[in-house]
Amino acid sequence: MPDPLPFYAEVRVLRASDRPHLEGRVGGILGITEPPDASTPPAYAVLLDGAEEVYTFLRDEIEPTGHMRKQEDYY
């Protein structure tokens, strides 16, 4: 499993089979689930640039861009 991502990490959507129009979009992580057990991967709540709603992705559906955003960028 890939390394977990921190809050406010900038990510790019790699795959969104049920929402292909989101593929390639960039945004920041605003939430991370706490899985009930070690076999369940966390999910990431991502606010995509220009979007008004938060989308949820699994770790293998997003990739880090290498940039970190700040809390002030969102709140």
Descriptive tags:
75 residues; mainly beta; SH3 type barrels; 5-stranded antiparallel beta sheet; globular
Word description of this protein:
It is a single chain. With 75 residues, the chain is mainly β. It has one domain (9-73): Roll (SH3 type barrels), CATH 2.30.30. The protein is built from no helices and five strands. It has strands at 9-13, 26-32, 43-48, 54-58, 62-68. Strands 4-3-2-1-5 form a five-stranded antiparallel sheet, with no helix packed on it. The radius of gyration is 12 Å and the shape is globular.
CATH architectural name: Roll
Strand order of the largest sheet: 4-3-2-1-5
Strand content: 35-45%
As a whole number of angstroms, the C-alpha radius of gyration is 12 Å
Q: What distance lies between the first and last C-alpha atoms, to the nearest angstrom?
A: 31 Å
**What is the succession of H and E elements?**
EEEEE
CATH level 1 name:
Mainly Beta
Write the layout of secondary structure elements.
Elements: E1 9-13, E2 26-32, E3 43-48, E4 54-58, E5 62-68
Antiparallel strand pairs: 1-2, 1-5, 2-3, 3-4
Concise synopsis of the structure shown:
By secondary structure, the chain is an all-beta fold.
